[in-house]
């Protein structure tokens, strides 16, 4: 049984013994934002993790920085997420086409900064807008792809900051998302909480040889795109640091190209679907070997 945490109904099922066989818990994130719930939910979580045979995490950074998996670190196995084969293939083709020439921006000469994700509390989009306002003299564009409960609030903030070069696209198709990645110069992931445990969108941008600016969260986020190699990592919630990193990449095309080449290479070497499947199989074979022979 593979259980994707958090899902309280599944914890109740484990408590009541309503499953059989080996139990694997996929630990995606904690529940720090629900403080009123934590005292009641924590005992259930501890029981589930105690019963679990293995705990999957997407990055080593998610083990020491989460108190509950840390308590059961001997059961933890790191299985990083991957980009789809289709995304990687399209990204390779795009990077090869753009090698040695200016990136395609659909006729746009301005540097385009991209955010992709839900517009929710831990994504840090308010920080992104305030940081973007500090570099308005560079004439960059900022595109926010995604929807969520904070969309109207963020649009009002953008207006109050006097930002005219910000586009909110709302929800888009997978094809449109890929097109937006092709058109951008770099991706920004300004998340402010370790509720952001990995962020596959980093891999998607890196697959197109795009640098990433992320934040130094106590999670797997800064281990995906690496500071000084595939992009920049800044302090969570720091408008000044984020603005500085965006300014540096916006002004230095050679640096963007260098980070982009490194990013594509890293995805190809560490984050393919084939590698993820191999890691999965390794753990499942390990579990199978622990079963009595009649149950294999």
What does this molecule look like?
It is a single chain. The chain has 296 residues and is an alpha/beta fold. 44% of the residues lie in helices and 14% in strands. It has twelve helices and ten strands. The protein has helices at residues 8-15, 38-51, 67-71, 85-98, 125-133, 151-160, 174-183, 200-207, 221-224, 239-251, 253-270, 273-290, and strands at residues 2-5, 24-27, 54-57, 76-78, 112-116, 141-145, 166-170, 186-188, 212-215, 231-234. It has a six-stranded parallel β-sheet, with helices on both faces. The chain has a four-stranded parallel β-sheet with strand order 1-2-3-4, with helices on one face. Helix 1 (8-15) crosses helix 2, helix 4 (85-98) runs antiparallel to helix 11 and helix 5 packs across helix 10. It is globular, with a radius of gyration of 21 Å. The relative contact order is 0.14.
Helix and strand arrangement:
Blueprint: E1 2-5, H1 8-15, E2 24-27, H2 38-51, E3 54-57, H3 67-71, E4 76-78, H4 85-98, E5 112-116, H5 125-133, E6 141-145, H6 151-160, E7 166-170, H7 174-183, E8 186-188, H8 200-207, E9 212-215, H9 221-224, E10 231-234, H10 239-251, H11 253-270, H12 273-290
Parallel strand pairs: 1-2, 2-3, 3-4, 5-6, 5-8, 6-7, 8-9, 9-10
Helix pairs in contact: 1-2, 4-8, 4-11, 5-10
End-to-end separation: 15 Å
Number of helical elements:
12
Q: Over all CA atoms, what is the radius of gyration?
A: 21 Å
Compressed to H and E, one letter per element, the order equals EHEHEHEHEHEHEHEHEHEHHH
Which shape, going by the Cα principal axes? globular
Average predicted confidence as pLDDT: 92
Poorly predicted regions: 103-107
The computed structural class is alpha/beta
Outline the biggest β-sheet.
Answer: 6 strands, parallel
């Amino acid at each position: 049984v593979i259980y994707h945490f958090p899902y309280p109904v599944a914890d109740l099922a484990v408590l009541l013994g309503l499953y059989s066989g080996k139990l694997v818990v996929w630990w995606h994130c904690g529940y720090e934002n629900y403080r009123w719930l934590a005292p009641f939910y924590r005992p259930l979580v501890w029981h589930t993790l105690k019963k679990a045979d293995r705990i999957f995490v997407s990055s080593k950074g998610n083990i020491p920085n989460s108190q509950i998996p840390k308590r059961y670190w001997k059961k933890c196995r790191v299985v990083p997420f991957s980009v789809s084969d289709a995304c990687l293939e399209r990204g390779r083709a795009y990077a090869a086409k753009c090698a040695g020439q200016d990136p395609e921006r659909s006729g746009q000469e301005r540097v385009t900064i991209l955010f992709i994700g839900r517009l929710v509390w831990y994504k840090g989009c308010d920080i992104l807008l305030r940081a973007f306002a500090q570099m308005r003299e560079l004439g960059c564009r900022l595109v926010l792809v995604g929807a969520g409960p904070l969309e109207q609030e963020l649009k009002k903030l953008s207006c109050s900051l006097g930002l005219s070069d910000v586009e909110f696209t709302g929800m888009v198709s997978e094809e449109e998302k890929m097109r937006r990645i092709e058109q951008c110069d770099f991706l920004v992931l300004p998340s402010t909480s370790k509720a952001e445990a990995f962020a596959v969108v980093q891999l998607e941008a890196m697959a197109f040889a795009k640098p990433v600016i992320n934040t130094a969260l106590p999670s797997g986020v800064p281990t995906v795109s690496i500071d000084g190699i595939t992009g920049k990592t800044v302090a969570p919630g720091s408008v000044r640091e984020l603005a500085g990193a965006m300014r540096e990449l916006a002004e230095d095309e050679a640096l963007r190209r260098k980070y982009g080449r490194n990013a594509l290479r890293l995805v190809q070497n560490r984050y393919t679907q084939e590698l993820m499947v191999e890691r999965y199989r390794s753990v499942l074979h390990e579990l199978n070997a622990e079963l009595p022979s009649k149950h294999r």
